[in-house]
Each structure stands twice: as C-alpha cells, then as structure tokens.
Write a sequence for this structure.
C-alpha cells in the first residue's frame, strides 16, 4: 500500500493543525473536540467493510443544531481545501525524491524521438507549425471564491519558502506564523458567494490567472524546452516561437447565457487590453533598469537618435531611449483601454493597435544585443518579454464568441421577411446556401439602416458590430453551437460582413449531439466543396468536438466512440480537400465531460487528428488545478507539448477492423442501455431530482450562466455541468458509466472477451477509456449513494435506486475483469491513497448534506443556516474529490 509522500503528509498535518488552532480560538476547544470526534467516527465507519453508515456517525451529525452544522461543514470544507493546496504544491516542489508520475522530461522525449529515427529537421518543422491553444472558459464549476483562491495561492508560496533545509529556526517560525495568519483569514472568510459573478467578473478572474501564474510560467516553460532542444539537437527556439497560446470564452460565450451581451463583450475586450498593457509596462520598467549599456547596432542607434528628443533620454543610452518610447505608448494604450472598457470615447494618439508595434522595438533591442555580442543580456529578461509579447500580444487573451445556430437563423428570417424575400427559416438547405452565397458575393449592403428586429436579433447584430471595431488579433474563433449544416457557418460569415467585420474571422462549427457528430464530416465536406468558402477559409478549417452534451445525450461509452469516429472522418475530409484541420476539443474537468489526464487524452486521439495542432477548453476549477500556480502551469504546458509532439511525430496505430466491429457492438448496447434508463424509465427524472442536490444547486452562485437552457423541462433541458455535478455530489457518478456495464457484460464469457483484452493492451483509445472508467468508479461510493437514498427517497422510487447501485457494482466488476485485477486502482496506488486520506473529511460532508437536504425540503420556510451549510457541503465535497462538473 503506497502512502502519501512524507513531505506532503507533513504539509497536510501542519495546515490541519493551524486550522484546528484557529477554530479553537474562535469556537472553543470543546468544538474542536466535537469535530475531531466526528472525524474519528468517520474513520472508524470506513474500517467496517460494506453495510450502511454507522449509527454513531449519523447520530453525531443529526444531533447538531442548525448553528453548529454550519461551522462543522466549514471546518471539513476548509481542511479539504488546505489539503488540495498541499497536494498541488507537492506536484511542483523543489526537492523531489522521485519523478512525478506522467511528466516526462523534454530531454527524455527528444531522445526517444531521435531513437525512433526522427531528424532535427522533422522536429523543427513541427515546432514551426505547432499550434497548441488553451481556451479558458468560465463554466460554473469553480466553487471556490476568488478571494480565497488568492489566499490559497499565498499559502502555496509559503510552503515553497518553507521547503528549504537551510532555514534558521527564526525563519521557520516566521513562515509558520505567516501560514497561521492566512489560515485564520481563510477561516474567517465566507467561502460561499452571496451573489453570482457577472461575466465581466469571470473575465477579470481569467486575467488574474495570466497575471499571477501564466505570465511567469510561459517563459520558464520555453526556457526549459529550449535548453533540452539545444542539448539534444544543437539548435535553439527562435524568439518568436511560443508553442502554446491562450484564448478565452469569458465575456464571449453567450450560448444560453442572457447575461453576456454586446456591451459585456466590449467591456471585456477593453479590460483585456488594459491588463496586457499594464503587464508589459511592468516588464518594460524592469528592462529600462537593466539595459543601460551603450554598445548597439547602427539600426538601433538611428532609431534612438530619432526618438531621443521626444523621450528626453540620453541618446548615449540607446536601449533606454527606445524602451522609454515604448513605455509612453503602453501608458497611452492602457489609458485608452480603460476608457473603452467604460464605454467612453478616447484619444487614440500613440495607442498600440497592431502587435507588430509592440514587438518591433523589443526585437530591435534583442537583435542589437546579439549583434554586439551581449548574448547573456539579450537572452535574459528581454527574451522573456519578447516571448510573452509573441504569445499574449496586445490582447492578452484572444476572445472567442459562441452563439447558438438558431439565433443566427432567426436574424436572417426576420431580415428576409422584412425585405419581402421570403422566410429564411422555412427554406431548405440548398435554398439557404444559394441566398447566403449570393449575398456574400454582393458588394451592396443587405441590412437597411431602418431594419427593425426583435430584441434577441438586435443583440446578435450588436455583438457583430462590436467585433467590427476590434483588430483581428484580438479575436479568436466564432463558435456555432448546435451546428449541423453548411448554412450555419455561412450565415455567421454573412452577418459579420454586414456588420462591418473586415478581417476573416475563424468560424467554427461545434458538433455536440450523437447525430451531429455522425454528420460532422459530411457537413464539412459540403462546406469545403463551395469555391467561395474555400477562398474565405484559406485552406484552414477548425472544427469543435463537443464532449459534454454528447455524453449526456448518449452515455460516455457511445459518445467517446462517436467522437473518435467523427475525428477520423474529419481528418479524411481535410486530407481530401488539402485543408489544414484543427480540432477544438470541448472537454470538461470530469470524465463525463471528456476530462482526465491530458497527455493520455491526446495520445489516444485518432492518428492524424493532432498533427501539430490542438485546441482545448480548460473549464472552471480545472483552470486553477492546471494553471493556478506558475510551477503547476509550467508542468501542465509540458504535459500538453510532449503529448502533441508525440501524437504528431509518433501517432498511434489505426484500430484494426475487428476492434472497430466490436466497439460498434459495445456502443450499440451501451446506448440503448443508457437511454432506456435516462429517457425511458418513468421514475428516472423524479428519482434524479429527489436523491441528488440538483434543485439545491441553483442556490450556489457559481457562475454568470443559468443552470438550465430554459425554464422547466426534464434532463434534456439541464446543462451537462449541473447534470454531472449532481451525480458527483452523491458519489454515484452515473453519467460516466451507465451503459458501459451492460455493454461489457454482453461480451464477457464469449470469444470476444479475448478481443477486449487485445484492445486494452494495443489500442490507446480503448485503454484510456477503461482507465478513465476506473478513475470514475474509484471516486464513486455505494455506501454514500445508498445513504442519500435512505434519507431522501420515497418508497415508490427506491427500486430504481437499488437497480442503479447494483449496476454501479457491476461496472466495478467489469473494470476489474477488464484490467485483470482484484480491486480498482491496483496500478495507481498513489491516487488510491489520496482518496483514502480524504475519506474521513468527505464522508461527514456527504452525511451532513443528505441531512440538510431533508431539513431544507421539509421546512415550510427557508432556514438561512441550513441553506448556508448546504452550500458549504457542496463546495467541500467538490474539494474533497476534486471534481464538480
């Protein structure tokens, strides 16, 4: 049995001890004793295999008053958050006793490529074309308040300071006291938001991730790779190479979110430029202090001479003259962006609009230093700033726009009716395409100045007009959700054109449901067959694959296979038309939404689907877990880069036909099995809403977007995130495994069972799917799920609960049989140990939550203490198993 690393265990112990000290000072030693009694009862409860929750533990929790229950929930929640900080820091701690699992060094990867016969030219060619982009999204899965996240980051920084063997006792004491103050501040901070954040608040949080983590992590990551590249192949990365880029949906994703408007998008774009200018100003101030030398190239000396008077700098310090002028322009840019964000008109004199204007003076200084032999200076802070400028540009985060295809069709329908041209919504696909292509080729405007339309359509047009006021570099992709036909793409391009967008914005169809995925390649084929569109896209096509809604629609196994096949077909289509394809993966944090270890996910993609280009959403709490600290962000970027390089240069083999045939049979069974329960069982929706905190979830102010696409409706109207969040809270994890149990059971005992083992051993896609399924069932817990059922479910619904728990048990058996093991996580004892350590803290939160849900539903009027405690348990459980939606 693998235990926690001694240093990790010590940090967890210290933070827990400090938390106990602060709780004691606030609530008294007797209260700490009560909490410790609950923890010990939970640990004792776990020691009894199987069965129901112990009467001792349940009784202790049930006896708590409404006032006590809030503080008990807060105590366990805070401990789990502190344990997460320790674990996150441990992944990047300075003195490792062993290599972190799954993080291959750049040197080892490049050596492996060389051994496989890959030449330096092949590697450099790939790096030159490399396009890895992380798209930060504000999906409502981050349950921790930003003010607490900032305190947690400070705690992680102090753990790093403490991780030195040469500290004096006084220094150790000073750090411990600083940790104690932060733990005290966290304990006395309300962990639950009282109001939903606005879309602008969410965007500010995204900018803070860049400011506090990515700004430092990016140059360190590139330096690490550059060193390995030089050691193995004798070449350096050019200064313009960034390898990774960042974009955002925060303030641009309006699909089903009425709170994201054209004004929101305008404000976020302004704030993004303000933050970028402010960060570059900090860099330039540092460079002004460093670059005091007088030796320079003739080109730099001439540039400095022409600027010396305006900057009032000594022309004998040419680097400072050039950088002073850049500082002046950045200050003007920052002032202008602040006014734009507020909706005010602003003077554009000296404002930087084109990234080339930012890069030119930096590159001029860099090239001059190299020319005069000052390589050490050139490759110091100046190179870091150059790389930041190439990655983040003047916009900091490129902003994607996402909107539903029906909204665009409705605008055009209202317009065609207004103009007496017919009803766009009533036309078939060929009629729509003919109209759109005719208008796209026309030089006259289509939309008259006096066009009167609905409020929703006016908002779509207003957004397009905001985009027309931006430089092309500020914008990412225009993503069309629920896309199904070529006209969906052409409609967006026409609306952008009519609203004055002159740069060809990438328009990206998102294929989400099972049916959409099956038609994806055909839709793109029809689109690429249009000569006008081929000219527009310049032989570059991006397609987004939806993971969340496809899994909710069909179950995880069927959805995963549909996604795989769609990607294969899209690769073939792109090759047929000679088009460079970029697949944009809409993955979430949980397995039910396409989540899981990044490197495994990339390496299990169909051969040819990566090819140097990979775009992926990073959602909610996963942004913090992957990019919240500079060291963590550096490791995350390393994982992605290694996987994309390997998948591109050493792609996995194509699946054999008999694997595909068996996979088709498996998914047919799983699809029918999943839908038979979720869509057809008469008690399913009522059971779901009774046993899970789905209804209570609406009380959590998680994000700016509503939990439902529309009021009322069944499971189909629920967004994928709360759908998975609710099942995760009760530890049944249903969306990720339902259907797989019967699919695999249908093969066991037949001759195809040997084929399953062959697939697991030789096919990365299938092996990864089985491993992710194992991770899901490891986080599941039948004892917990059964307790919710006992406390909350009426007798007439209990048979369904019993059936679902039995099917979960069968899924566990299937996983163990597939992996030829006695118990889950036999091959991953470290993860198993992490889950086991958290149990005495997560279990009380589960039992408390069920009790609170019972109290809340039985009370005639809302009890503020019960509601507050219920919200805390949701946040604590999410922290305990490091998953929400």
């Amino acid at each position: 049995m693998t235990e926690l690393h001694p240093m990790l265990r010590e940090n967890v112990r210290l933070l827990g001890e400090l938390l106990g000290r602060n709780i004691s000072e606030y609530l008294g030693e007797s209260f700490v004793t009560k909490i410790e009694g609950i923890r010990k009862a939970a640990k004792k409860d776990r020691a009894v295999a199987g069965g129901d929750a112990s009467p001792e533990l349940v009784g202790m929790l049930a006896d708590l008053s409404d006032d006590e229950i809030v503080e008990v929930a807060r105590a366990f929640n805070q401990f789990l958050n502190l344990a997460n900080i320790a674990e996150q820091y441990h992944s990047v701690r300075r003195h490792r006793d062993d290599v972190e699992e799954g993080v291959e060094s750049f040197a080892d990867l490049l050596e492996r490529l060389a051994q496989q016969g890959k030449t330096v030219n092949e590697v450099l060619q790939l790096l030159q074309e490399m396009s890895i982009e992380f798209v930060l999204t504000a999906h409502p899965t981050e349950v921790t308040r930003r003010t607490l996240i900032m305190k947690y980051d400070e705690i992680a920084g102090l753990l790093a300071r403490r991780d030195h063997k040469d500290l004096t006792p006084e220094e150790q004491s000073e750090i411990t006291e600083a940790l104690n103050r932060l733990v005290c501040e966290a304990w006395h901070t309300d962990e639950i938001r009282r109001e939903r954040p606005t879309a602008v608040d969410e965007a500010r949080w995204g900018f803070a991730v860049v400011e506090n983590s990515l700004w430092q992590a990016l140059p360190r990551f590139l330096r690490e790779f550059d060193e390995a590249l030089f050691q193995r192949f004798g070449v350096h990365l050019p200064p313009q190479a960034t390898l990774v880029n960042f974009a955002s949906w925060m303030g641009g994703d309006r699909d089903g979110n009425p709170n994201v408007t054209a004004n929101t998008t305008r404000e976020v774009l302004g704030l993004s430029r303000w933050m970028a200018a402010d960060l570059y100003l900090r860099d330039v101030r540092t460079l002004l202090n460093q670059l005091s030398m007088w030796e320079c190239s003739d080109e730099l000396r001439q540039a400095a001479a022409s600027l010396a008077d305006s900057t009032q700098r000594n022309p004998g310090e040419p680097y400072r003259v050039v950088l002073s002028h850049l500082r002046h322009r950045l200050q003007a840019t920052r002032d202008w962006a602040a006014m734009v964000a507020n909706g005010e008109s602003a003077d554009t004199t000296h404002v930087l609009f084109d990234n080339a204007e930012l890069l030119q003076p930096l590159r001029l200084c860099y090239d001059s230093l190299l020319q005069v032999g000052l390589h050490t200076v050139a490759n110091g802070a100046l190179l870091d700033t150059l790389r930041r400028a190439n990655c983040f540009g003047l916009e900091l985060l490129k902003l994607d726009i996402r909107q539903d295809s029906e909204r665009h069709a409705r605008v055009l329908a209202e317009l065609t009716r207004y103009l007496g041209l017919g009803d766009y919504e009533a036309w078939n696909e060929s009629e729509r395409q003919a109209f759109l292509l005719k208008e796209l080729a026309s030089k006259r405007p289509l939309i008259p100045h006096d066009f009167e339309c609905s409020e929703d359509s006016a908002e779509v047009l207003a957004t397009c007009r905001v985009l027309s006021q931006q430089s092309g570099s500020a914008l990412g992709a225009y993503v069309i959700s629920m896309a199904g036909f070529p006209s969906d793409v052409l409609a967006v391009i026409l609306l952008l054109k009519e609203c004055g967008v002159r740069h060809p914005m990438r328009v990206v169809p998102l294929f989400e449901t099972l049916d959409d995925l099956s038609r994806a390649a055909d839709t793109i084929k029809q689109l690429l067959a249009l000569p006008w569109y081929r000219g527009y896209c310049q032989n570059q096509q991006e397609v987004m694959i939806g993971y969340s809604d496809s899994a909710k629609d069909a179950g995880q196994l069927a959805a995963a296979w549909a996604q795989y096949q769609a990607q294969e077909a899209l690769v073939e289509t792109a090759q047929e038309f000679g088009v460079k394809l970029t697949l944009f993966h809409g993955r979430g944090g949980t397995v039910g939404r396409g989540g899981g270890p990044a490197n495994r996910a990339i390496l299990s993609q169909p051969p040819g689907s990566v090819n140097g280009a990979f775009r992926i959403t990073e959602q909610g709490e996963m942004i913090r877990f992957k990019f919240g600290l500079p060291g963590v962000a550096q490791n995350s970027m390393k994982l992605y880069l290694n996987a994309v390089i390997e998948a591109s240069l050493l792609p996995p083999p194509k699946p054999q036909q008999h694997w595909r045939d068996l996979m088709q049979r498996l998914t047919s069974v799983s699809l029918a099995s999943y839908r038979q329960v979720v869509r057809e069982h008469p008690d399913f929706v009522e059971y779901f809403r009774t046993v899970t905190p789905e209804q209570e979830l609406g009380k959590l102010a998680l994000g700016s977007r509503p939990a439902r696409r529309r009021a009322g409706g069944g499971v189909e109207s629920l967004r994928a995130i709360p759908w998975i969040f609710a099942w995760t809270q009760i530890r049944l994890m249903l969306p990720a495994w339902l259907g797989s149990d019967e699919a695999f059971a249908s093969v066991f005992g037949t001759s195809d069972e040997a084929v399953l083992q062959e697939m697991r051993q030789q096919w990365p896609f299938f092996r990864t799917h089985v491993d992710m399924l194992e991770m899901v069932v490891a986080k599941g817990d039948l004892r917990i799920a059964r307790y919710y059922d006992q406390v909350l479910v009426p007798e007439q619904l209990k048979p369904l609960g019993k059936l679902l728990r039995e099917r979960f048990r069968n899924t566990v058996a299937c996983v163990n049989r597939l992996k030829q093991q006695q118990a889950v996580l036999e091959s991953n004892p470290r993860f198993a140990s992490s889950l086991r350590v958290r149990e005495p803290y997560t279990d009380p939160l589960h039992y408390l939550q069920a009790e609170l849900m019972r109290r809340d539903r039985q009370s005639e009027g809302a009890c503020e203490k019960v509601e507050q405690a219920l919200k805390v348990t949701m946040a604590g459980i999410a922290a305990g198993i490091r998953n929400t939606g």
User: Anything to note?
Assistant: Confidence is low (pLDDT under 50) at residues 94-101, 591-595. The beta strands are 131-137, 244-248, 398-404, 475-481, 506-511, 540-546, 580-586, 613-619. The CA atoms of residues 150 and 402 lie 29 Å apart.
